[in-house]
Write a structure and sequence with these properties.
Blueprint (H helix, E strand, L loop, with lengths): L4 H8 L11 E3 L7 E2 L5 E11 L11 H18 L3 E11 L5 H17 L3 E9 L5 E11 L14 E5 L4 H15 L8 H8 L5 H8 L7 E3 L4 H12 L2 E5 L7 H10 L3 H7 L6 E5 L4 H10 L4 E8 L4 E6 L2 E4 L17
Parallel strand pairs: 4-5, 9-12
Antiparallel strand pairs: 1-2, 3-6, 4-6, 7-10, 7-11, 8-10, 9-11, 12-13
Helix pairs in contact: 2-3, 2-6, 4-5
Function: Catalyzes the ATP-dependent phosphorylation of thiamine-monophosphate (TMP) to form thiamine-pyrophosphate (TPP), the active form of vitamin B1.
GO molecular function: ATP binding; magnesium ion binding; thiamine-phosphate kinase activity
GO biological process, one term: thiamine diphosphate biosynthetic process
């Protein structure tokens, strides 16, 4: 199919035309966007790409879900820094096996995610690709000067926590891959797993609560699996994280599906990825206060362990036996424990 680049850009991004205000002085439609921040704020910027067959398959993701998830993965990174997401740049490389209508649906998902989190699309690029569709999203936000949350801020004596539930996205991918093979519809009881995988939630409110703490700890978002994110904190901070397996929050639907399939839900929680929850550390004296603030926002909050001197290392108590947690998860340049979908 032949694409008219400029007409398609105008069509797909028409909802951003003419947008200005709230720091944005030049929006989409010029050579570049122009925006400013208040003097007491710093820029938080991140970029993430989704490539067909590497991160998603048409069999497991609708076009709108692809766009939605690409934005959420970046908003989650801003959340992990304690920031407020504000602007997005979208670059798409379209292969011949994707129609203009399907790409429009991708942008529908992009805008759905942006609107849900108050983010405005301010530019990007559209090109052709010979084989696979690639979608790259850059999100820029703001955080109070000196208040960005870092992986390197974990200290002995702190508690390790995670928001929400983990493992659900990997369970959803397993389900969708199976139904794609058989052609069967997803049963109603497993629909929450589809939502975990296709429409994840970024924990911006949780990041803001933690950024406002008088003595914040480390923070990371769960994109490549809880084990991978805990290891990143451990290595950046030079500490040992001791985790209780039975405390890791796994949704009941995920546990039920794992039992149905004869699989270990904890493996999905540790190594599956794409849950986009937040994992980090807090001072022990802050547990009750932060837990109450999270509860007010309807955000599940679970303490799963503690920080100790030594390391870097991550160990887990399972069935009264301490064992090392493998430094594994999704890895573009090595063998992954769970393939993204």
């Amino acid at each position: 199919m032949t694409y008219d680049e400029f007409s398609l850009i105008r069509r797909w991004t028409s909802r951003s035309a003419g947008q200005t205000g709230d720091g944005l002085s030049v929006g989409i439609g010029d050579d570049a966007a122009v925006f400013s921040l208040p003097a007491d704020r710093e820029v938080v910027a991140c970029c993430d790409a989704m490539v067909e067959t590497v991160h998603f398959l048409k069999e497991t993701m609708n076009p709108s879900d692809i766009g939605y998830k690409a934005v959420i993965s970046n908003i989650s990174d801003v959340a992990a820094m304690g920031g407020i997401p504000k602007y997005a740049l979208i670059s798409i490389a379209v292969s011949p096996n994707w129609t203009a209508e399907e790409c429009q649906q991708i942008y529908d998902g992009i805008y759905a995610a942006c609107e849900a989190y108050g983010v405005r699309v301010i530019g990007g690029d559209t090109v052709s690709s010979p084989a696979a569709l690639s979608l790259s999203v850059t999100v820029m936000g703001e955080v109070e000067k000196g208040r960005a949350l870092l992986r390197s801020a974990a200290k002995p004596g702190q508690l390790v926590f995670v928001t929400g539930h983990v493992g659900g996205s990997a369970a959803g991918l397993d389900l969708l891959l199976q139904t794609a093979k058989t052609g069967e519809a997803v049963e109603e009881m497993w629909q929450p797993l589809v939502a975990f995988h296709q429409r994840p939630v970024a924990q911006v409110a949780a990041g803001r609560i933690l950024a406002a703490s008088a003595n914040p700890g480390a923070l990371n978002d769960v994109s490549d699996g809880l084990a991978s994110e805990l290891w990143e904190i451990s290595e950046a901070s030079g500490v040992c994280l001791r985790i209780e397996a039975e405390l890791i929050p796994v949704a009941e639907t995920t546990r039920m599906y794992a039992s149905h399939k004869g699989k270990d839900p904890l493996h999905w929680a540790l190594y599956g990825g794409e849950d986009y929850q937040l994992a980090g550390t807090i001072e022990a004296v802050e547990e009750e206060r932060i837990g109450a603030l999270f509860a007010q926002q309807g955000i599940p909050f679970t303490v799963i362990g503690r920080v100790e001197a030594g390391g870097p290392s991550v160990v887990m108590n399972r069935n009264s036996r301490w064992e090392p947690v493998a430094k594994a998860g999704f890895n573009h340049f090595g063998k992954a424990d769970a393939r993204k979908g």
